[in-house]
Design goal:
Layout lengths: L3 E5 L20 H13 L4 E4 L8 H10 L5 E6 L6 H14 L4 E5 L5 H5 L7 H20 L4 E4 L4 E5 L12 E5 L3 H10 L2 E5 L3 H16 L6 E11 L2 H22 L7 H12 L2 E2 L3 E2 L1 H5 L8 E5 H14 L3 E4 L4 H26 L11
Parallel strand pairs: 1-2, 1-13, 2-3, 3-4, 4-7, 7-8, 8-9, 9-12, 9-13
Antiparallel strand pairs: 5-6, 10-11, 11-12
Helix pairs in contact: 1-2, 1-12, 3-5, 5-6, 6-7, 11-12
Amino acid sequence: MPVKIIGMIGVTPPINDATVHIITGGISPDYLKSFAQAHERADYDLVLVGYTSQSADGIAVASYAAAHTERLSFLIAHRPGFVAPTLMARKFATFDQLWNGRLAVHIIAGVSDVENMMDGDAMEKPDRYRRAAEYLDVMHRAWAGPGPFDFEGEFYSVRAARADVLPLQQPHPVVYFGGSSEGALVMGAEHCDVFAMFAEPLAVTAERMEDFRARAAKHGRVPRFNLSLRPIIGETEDAAWPKATHILELVQKEMATTGGQLAADHSAERIMALAEAADIHDQRLWMPLAAAYGARGNTTCLVGTAEQVADACLEYYKLGMGGFLLRGFDPLNDVEDYGRELIPRIRAGAAALDGAGSGRQAGDLPG
């Protein structure tokens, strides 16, 4: 399989030229349409449709974008607990059928207890992951069809459940997850297909991948992996680093105005510790912006020319990283730049490694 390239679509134009998060704010149908079409032109395979406790509904956003694209697929973030798993299984299956198999699902448990309470969910994070594991168990059973089936768990009790609509993709759409806590890893190893990771140093990444392979193997599963990062590219390396510094200055100014936030989860704590250890790891993995933003979300960067950043991505590919979520700080323009300069180099390099036999395991191929 070829390497998977994932983007992320926002729903409203950015407020400045150093946009870190793009899923909050109102909704602009014209912008959403243009943003999705730009990803398709840039040769992205999928786009993430994010989730927060105040953002637009992900399935509706993805459906609108799907109506204005032809082949682009949608990685819809979903937070278990607010919609019954049997109903959500049918919602996802309906999307998959209507849009010709252009669906993947990203499971999240919520970054913080405070944010979850915005939707009235008082459950603590470890319990949310246990609930999510049951949720995925029920959803997979519903997708398997034809039913009926019963389920009795700690959080869900289902009797004679069945679904008239099943996913077009069989046995089911690919399920992603992310996280560093024990609860996240236990849930993902048993129920998910792709472990979505933030960019960290190569040695640390290799250790985490090996640990997760061992966890998944206990359930008879062979996991796949995806890396989320923020490329900052310039025509020359001397142009790329000042560009990165300029973005950092804008983010620091924003944080000084808003007050900023501290790391809120295990993943953020890991990133903050790495940022404290060094500004740069592995030559071009740049951490100061992640530190400035409290390591919330995807904020670690690769800085350099398009060729240098592509080569850095391929070092992760050699470890078994089957896909990359690439998004920048000038969202629409960066998508166009990546499609012209970066994505072709990553695809060509990955194909060359596959053709040469890079030692990648079959289970590490992207899903």
